[in-house]
Amino acid sequence: MVCDKQQADMEVDVIISGCGPVGALTSNLLGSLGVRTLVLEQDLAPHGQPRAFSCDDEGLRIYQSTGLGAELQKDMRQNHFAEYVGETGRRFAEVHTSSADFGFGYSPLWFFHQPLVEGVLRGGLERFPHVTLQLGASVESLEQDGAGVTVRYRLVEKGETRTVRGRFLLACDGARSPVRKALNIKMAGRAYGEPWLAVSGQVEGDAPELCRFVCDPKRPAFVATGAVGQFRWEFMLMPGETREEMERPETIKKLLEPYIDPARVHVERAQVYTFHCLNAARWRDGNVFLLGDAAHTMPPFMGQGLVSGMRDASNLAWKIQRVVQGLAPASLLDTYEEERRPHVEAVQKLCVRVGHLFLARNRWVASARDMVMRALQRIPRVRRFIQGFEFKQPPMHEQGYYLGGKREGAQSAEGTYFIQPKVRLPSGQEVLLDDAIGNDFAVLCRANAPSAQLAAARGLAEALGGRLLAVQSAGEHGGEVPAVEDITGKLGDWFSRHGSDVVVLRPDRFVFGAVKAERLPELRDALGV
To answer: How many angstroms separate the CA atoms of 470 and 517, rounded?
Structure first.
């Protein structure tokens, strides 16, 4: 069916297909940037299913950027400790998640209840008169040209068909993405053959706080205490077991018995699934972009599925805003896949490696794994590597929209995710750095810089439409520009380690460039302002 762009019922900057967690997050990011957005969600009611379960420090920082971070975090639970146990129940590895600190403002593992997260994100859209959420809207067809995309959609309740014209269409519609299929974009990778039963529910009374990977070759499992009284159990199906058999209440009861009294559990969801490790052949087709599961799926062993979609949203939203508002050329959007795909593929590979550790099915291999892991952790550096969660893939882009277009060596600041320590405002209030610099471009410099350098940095920030902030050491007095006090010393250490006087941060908090003051003209030229 062909869409008639001349008779569109509505015109916006961006159309989003799907209002799950990634679609709702993307809508909030675009809304906060002033982008006219229509969100089409085929379901009439909220999804209500606790599918995704965890997020990390990067995810919380992204939520923070929407202005909804505190509201979302109050219903989350910080995880403090994760353990890997073998067939006998004896621990062979542990991760101290609450003490791990990658510098981004939060500890790296939090559990949440998906219906609550989606509720807050959808409620957040009410802040923006230029963002519309249309429920019960099923995308039927799309047509695009050089200037934009026209989407035809059906209103399920009314049976009416409407069209909307947008500059861009973002597919946040899941692993079975109708938009991706309409564009005939194939997924490639591996579909793992091992089905799992995921059980979610509430526990009455006191429940143990745990996050345990049961690496038992007889039945690998995962057990964790979630947020707001939730629990999550996942059990691998053995050969010959069927979906129907495993989803029966009596089967679920037997599986739960080793971990908790089943009589105390109110099961809210029990579903068999098979996880995949797939990537779309391309994440962009003209003016259409794929995000989250529509672009990539991954094994669950590192809890990075939803967070990867959140990173997509954070990377793409500000780029679309700058193109829509004429602040950047359309070529900026080419850097979305260029930056994100290598990181997604690296995370996928890590998840597969952790899965191999987790899913050893041979009893002798599993026993040898347990012994080797215990022996290795007698080496202090290896123990710190595991307990400190250092095996997590760092957020970093090797090339893209950065000074020079790519990272120059392992010590290069460009393409890295900037730290977010606490700082003290002139009022005396202590906040995380992003709350002091806003959600646009930001220029940070040393507070004791000469006046000419501060003036040049101010001019750069104004040209970018962003904010200039000087970083002063504890005890320093305010200077010529707005300043924050580096109460932890981490910002000063960062400037010294990278030999920089000025750093430009992109809206997604990746470092565009960090230079000595004399290279400010070069930095400004690279930014095109």
So the answer is: 13
